[in-house]
Amino acid sequence: MIEPARDWMEILIEAGIAEPKKLESLMNEANELLAITVASIKTARKTK
Questions:
Q1: What domain count does the chain have?
Q2: Of 2, 21, 20, whose CA–CA distance to 11 is shortest?
Q3: Would you state the pLDDT for residue 11?
Q4: Chain-centroid distance, C-alpha 24
Q5: Which domain holds residue 23?
Q6: H-only helix segments in 1-47
Q7: 8-state DSSP, 30
């Protein structure tokens, strides 16, 4: 769910619908959530 939201934000910026500055904090948060999710999955796989 995080990646599609991030992709849509990029599309909005590229299409000129949204200003990059206005979505910057949301993009950063999406990237952080994605990194946390990936790290959690890696940890879960190691503990099997």
A1: 1
A2: 20
A3: 95
A4: 11
A5: 2-46
A6: 2-14, 20-46
A7: H
| Both structure tokens of 20 | 């990059």
Pairwise CA distance, residues 45 & 36, whole Å: 14
Q: Per the structure block, which two tokens stand in for 13? A: 């910026």
Cβ neighbours around 18 below 10 Å, total: 16
Secondary structure of residue 21 in the 3-state scheme: helix
pLDDT in tens, 1-48: 778 988 999 999 999 999 999 999 999 999 999 999 999 999 999 987
Angle at which helix 2-14 crosses helix 20-46, to 10 degrees, equals: 160
Exposure letters 23-36 (e unless 16+ CB within 10 A, then b): beeeeeebeeeeee
